[in-house]
Amino acid sequence: MIELKNDGLQFSFPEVHKEARLDIDFQRTLRIPDDGSNHPLPPGLGSFPLQHVDDFADDISERWLTHGGVMLPMYQSEAMWLNFSARGNGFPYPVAVKIATGKINAVTGEEWENGLHADPQDYVVVPEQPWLDGYCVEKGIIRQFVAMPLGAGYTAEEQITGEAEHGGIQVIAYPMRREAYEEHRKKWKVEGWGPNVMGQMCLGSIQEDAAMYDMGLAPGGRMRQEIYDDPYEFNEWDTENASRCFVHIANSMVWRSITGKNPPTTPPTSREYTKAGLPWFEYYSDGEAIDGSGILAGLKSVIQIGQKKGDVPLPENESVTPGNVVQLRAGLRPGQVREGQF
Amino acid sequence: MSDDTRTFGDYVRGHREALRETDRTYSVRQVAGRIGIEPSYLSKVERGHVPPPSEATVVRLAEALGEDPDVLLALAGKVSSDLKDAIRRRPQLFGELIRELRDLPDHAVLKLVREVRDGDW
User: Fold this and answer.
1) pLDDT in tens, A204-229
2) CA distance B70 to A55
3) In chain B, which end has fewer C-beta atoms inside a 10 angstrom radius, N or C?
4) Number of C-alpha atoms within 13 angstroms, CB side, residue A246?
């Protein structure tokens, strides 16, 4: 089951194990420059607010209601990252999580299907993967998730399928099988370490009928981030027990008219943030990284498409040289975020 | 020392020490530092020598230990202020609801929890 708690999605699988829990929240962040260079990790500036779509049935499209799930506000060209926390008494309960945007898998670039695939691996493993900031375009490199209006031709979905049909973010989570967890737990207890220590140590025709407020995610600037190889046996995942959620993205400009609440303010630019001497991050782990996706590597970034169209899709895209880079190592505290105040 | 005080302290110490088995940053000193209290005070709380701390501190402690704040608050003999507000606003309705639900098994109560609805996509 999935509950909406404190602007996050709380997945729990009480039918599998009482410790099988996963929290996902969607972090506001800087948009890194889309200038071809590789950047460190930007900070988390707090979670985007989440609402049940059912609570605003009169003000949203029939399509969103059919999908069910939740919604959050983003400004055009705003960036985000997904923050994952596994729970569990002492030893976090491993959960396999598949993430798509516009029903395009963010790790493989393949179109959405339920279920997990090992080759190529189409999911991330939490807690080994503490966060996901974008599309896995090369081994160790992602392109940042950047919100663009659905129908304008920038999103990964439109570049790959030629259609602006789904938008939003899709998440499905599979817990580890109970017996497999219990076996690992015994071993971790004896050895004195757990997964938190071990692992953490693509333009076609564009439809014009998408609602004005409907946003999708597009590939932005390049960032150093590894997507870790699954360190467990594939048959240890409990594929019978999954929970999934459609996360819709509403343009922040209409969020107030839908919900009556103000969206968060716009985040600072990378330049302002860097100039203020605030921290960027690098994450180190012993985990093996998987290769990038050939499909996703073929995507054009927002700036590249803008140049082709003669648009300026990203205001303030000046390059920056982060000076204050904080190194994070494996073994984050439960719920720890890359914190940056502004 | 009341039973509440002892139960709360034992629970906190048990969980902190379980986390410390795999991560040394769960020492009394470092956990206290992360939630902004003196290590000696956290140590007294854990040993049940002083009553549980304020609601805000209990919530920070729950976050630091990856625990549910409502569980820790209940062990501290407290109810979170948002729940108190909810009851104050509709005392009769919530009073009745809690009395109706108190003896139901967990799985029956869980049916009342609001799940995020999955639709067709």
Assistant:
1) 333 333 456 899 999 999 999 999 99
2) 25
3) N
4) 24
Q: Do B22 and A9 touch (CB under 8 A)?
A: no
Contacts of B22 in chain A (CB under 8 A): 90-91, 188, 192-194, 196-197
**Beta pairing, strands A21-29 & A70-74:** unpaired
Read off the pLDDT of residues A249-298 as tens digits, 9 standing for 90 and up.
Answer: 999 988 988 998 999 999 999 999 999 888 999 998 888 999 999 999 99
Asked if A77 contacts A147 with a C-beta cutoff of 8 angstroms, the reply is yes
Position A208 scores a pLDDT of 36
Query: Does the CB of B20 have a partner CB in chain A at under 8 Å?
Result: no
- Interface probe for B, chosen from A333, A336, A339 (most Cβ of B below 10 Å), is A333
Locate the domains of chain B by residue range: 3-75, 81-110
For B3-75, CATH number out of 1.10.260.40, 3.90.1310.10, 1.10.1020.10, 3.30.379.10 equals 1.10.260.40
Q: Is residue A121 scored above 70 in pLDDT?
A: yes
Q: Does A14 touch chain B (CB under 8 A)?
A: yes
Q: Which residue of B has its CA nearest to A331?
A: B23
Name the 3-class secondary structure at A80. Answer: strand
Say which residue, A41 or B94, is predicted with more confidence.
A41
CA distance B50 to chain A (A): 26
Chain A residues inside the 8 Å CB shell of B116: 2-4, 9, 52, 68-70, 245
Question: Which two structure tokens, joined as six digits, stand for A258?
Answer: 């839908």
* A68–B64 CB contact, under 8 Å: no
Query: pLDDT digit string (tens) for B37-90?
Result: 999 999 999 999 999 999 999 999 998 998 888 889 999 999 888 888 888 988
- Ranges of each domain in chain A: 2-329
Strands (E), B1-121: none
Nearest-CA neighbor of A212 among A258, A262, A160? Answer: A258
Instruction: Tell me the mean pLDDT in the region B16-31.
Output: 92
